[in-house]
Amino acid sequence: MSLPTILVADDDRSIRTVLSQALGRGGYQVRTTAQASTLWQWVEEGEGDLVITDVVMPDENGLDLIPRIRRIRPDLRVVVMSAQSTLMTAVKATQRGAFEYLPKPFDLKEVLAVVARALATPATPVQPLAPPQPDEQMSLIGRSVVMQDIYRIIARLTTSDLTVMINGESGTGKELVARALHDYGRRRTGPFVAINMAAIPRNLIESELFGHERGAFTGATSRVAGRFEQAAGGTLFLDEIGDMPPEAQTRLLRVLQDGEFTTVGGTTPIRANVRIIAATHRDLRQAIRAGTFREDLYYRLNVVPMRLPPLRERVEDIPLLARHFLNENVEGAGSVRVLDDEAMAQLQAYRWPGNVRELENLMRRITALHPQESIGADIIAAELAEASNTAAPGESAGGGTAETLAEAVERHLRRFLASGQDGMPLSDIYDKVIAEVERPLITMTLAATRGNQIRAAAMLGLNRNTLRKKIRDLDIPVVRGGA
């Protein structure tokens, strides 16, 4: 049995060499070329079992080859690689029929895994969409590994109408992702309708979502279409879904189950012809445990979960984002602002509780308040300090919430683990850390129940005998208060 042949097209000699060697060691035959025309000739002649092609080549764009390859050899998988690591590249590659998109620089283990998966996956027919119109003002920005993963997920989802749940901190760009899924997807010619659950009074949410008939309630002087009707044929974006009241959750679940709804005060069912994208900054699993969010609704919405990383997890994107926001404000500022190296380093060291939105606001302030073209670390430090001083109680600069429990634990663990690098022996770390967390947790819960162990066990979700054993093992004093 002959070995599978991989056709590699890239005008960079070093990439051709690295791929040829890695694929050869992986048990494949490899043919490489710097020209799209040569690759096309091989494909026409029936050569190869898989194609790996760059996008930008001297004689033709690799993306333009994909539909032609798919027409004459629909079973031949195509993997696209590109140094233009943007959302648009990922979307175009996927929608033209590429099996996978790999941003450069890539991990050779990932390349080998993609090749193995491509050769083992049966080909499926692809219905190419009309080419999306690029909107650089709208597009997500970033070339970090985590953002490349987001781009690939978005690209795959543009070819379906699956329901998506986006989770991310405030300011991470959840609505931008929702708009990208719509604007590059199959429903792009329909409307994109957004509704923020946290911004609507509880008694009006059902009317906002489903509309109402004349006379349905006091003040309803005419029939009004709700967001489901307004979004017909397009996308309905349910922002801050975790803030939806229980009664509205019940109605939304019924719509998702039945595919139709009725207006408030109405009796005629209306077909729900929308794609649902939901978003939240909350931990919905915790909300389910607390009884504030329906578990069955969660699973209806969480068909495809997407987590948007906070800015502190993609610090390599900060220079790109900062320059983008500075350039956006050039017209009003009169001249381009440039951040020096120390200023950029300071931006990358900051935790960004308000994420991308906070960075955008900072760049706007700088262009408005500082006329000098070169922005130094002193200006960045002053602006960040000012933002911290004006944050509301319980908030951090940029509108983010105070340090979370997970962040506090992470900070202390980092310090604890670092102590082992100074000669202090570390062993049984897991038991020590759990004990460190358990003791104050149980102590404070007992204090809250004034020593009532039955109530404390119920609050902690522990068996009473288990709680007693932990109290004894951790030597926790119990004050009897009889609450």
UniProtKB/TrEMBL annotation:
The lineage of its organism: Bacteria, Pseudomonadati, Pseudomonadota, Alphaproteobacteria, Acetobacterales. GO terms for biological process: regulation of DNA-templated transcription; regulation of nitrogen utilization. The keyword Cytoplasm applies. Residues 5-119 form the Response regulatory domain. SMART domains: AAA, REC. Keywords: Activator, ATP-binding, Cytoplasm, DNA-binding, Nitrogen fixation, Nucleotide-binding, Phosphoprotein, Repressor, Transcription, Transcription regulation, Two-component regulatory system. This is DNA-binding transcriptional regulator NtrC. Its main location: cytoplasm. GO terms for cellular component: cytoplasm. The modification 4-aspartylphosphate is found at residue 54. Residues 140-368 form the Sigma-54 factor interaction domain. InterPro entries: AAA+_ATPase, AAA_lid_NorR, CheY-like_superfamily, Homeodomain-like_sf, HTH_Fis, P-loop_NTPase, Sig_transdc_resp-reg_receiver, Sigma_54_int.
